[in-house]
Amino acid sequence: MINRHLGKLLALAALICALCVLLSGCIVNPDEQNQNTDASTWKRYSESPAPATETPVPTETPTTDPNIQSWDAPSSGPLETITPTPTIGVATIVPGVIPTDTPSPDPNATASTLIKRGDQGERVRNVQESLRRLGYFEGKADGDFGEYTENAVKEFQRQNKLTPDGVVGPSTLARLGSSSAATAAPKTTATPKPTATPKPTKRVTATPKPTHTPKISNVYLTRGSSGDKVKQMQNRLISLGYLAGSASGHVDDMTEQAIIAFQKRNGLDDDGVAGPGTLEKLYSNSAKKANNVVGIIGVKLQKGSEGAAVRALQSKLKAKGYLSGAVDGSYGAATEEAVKAFQRANGITADGKAGTATLKALFGDTVKSSTAAAAATTKPPKATATPQPNTFVRVTKSPDGNYVTLEKGTMGSLVTKLQKALKSAGYFHGSTDGYYGQDTVDAVKRFQRDKGLNPDGKAGPATQRYLYEGDFPNES
Is pLDDT of 228 > 50? Predict the structure, then answer.
């Protein structure tokens, strides 16, 4: 019985020993296999062949009892030492991770890193914004790489000394983001060539077209005619410049003179009768305009009047020497004085108003010029005794209130009053000393000439009435 149990124990012990021997052999073999496996694994992750160098085999540290080593224990130092760390350039490759390419400004970049015509997206929009910031791109940053964007890229490359191929590679992209990137050259506009200044041409006034052409068959308008046809004819003569004023509807002397002037100007028989031939030419578009106004009809001009009729009046007065001011179409004080002078010279009441009689005389053939009128009214002075030098006769007021004639050699308060009045009117510039000397004589003559009086230098009743009270007709 005992022997039987003993035999079983021995058999069990032998079995245990066999298992221990078997297990102790498994501890060494896995290390060798693991080493070979790691080497093959690194060969799979290498991107370039490594130089043929022997991997040093570390010396295995003996264990006290290899038969009781546990697989749960952490790996020892030798396992870490025998694992090589392959490198590519300066980058360290971590096992199990595939390294990515780092962009470089290498001109031989791959197509996937280039931005070129036809591309779209955010990268294109960023390029466009950079080009806009530097002044090369003015369009909308729409993310579409078209012809306009390509041209902008080329210009940027030329300004920054890059190959102007219109493709945004690493070098162009790096330059776009650089603070030293050259900006676009300012655009210059061509200076226009100076044009020759045209020479002024003589202004030609077109002949006014008649607003309505009346029936003119069997119509004869002559002095004494009146009515609507006369008024229409006068308006046409006014528009052509032969007459001024307003149509009166009556053919008077000046209307007849205007008809004659029109006929002469347009190559017609100048008989003063507006028949069918004259009227046909008058209302045609080929009717010639007048050089001068023949007369003024239908109006009475006076101080305050304005317009073409006043301008015609002033032109005639200036031509005859009565007006020295401007022909401005405004009937002011200067025009009024000129009309008065003309009226006095031509025997018309000098009221300063240009009525029918004054206008007829002014535009007539027998009108006197201011020079002729002055010569006609100048009478040789009467021979009077010349007072001795420094000998003056004192004069006093007339008891009946009439003016006392003052002349050279008189003296007193009446002379002082005369000198003051002449000085106030701008004719006398000497001393108001009450002595009627040569300077007073000259002042009186100037005043008399301006007022249409006989310039004899004596301040008689007429001269003093003009000076003190205003204008009076010649016969008063």
Answer: yes
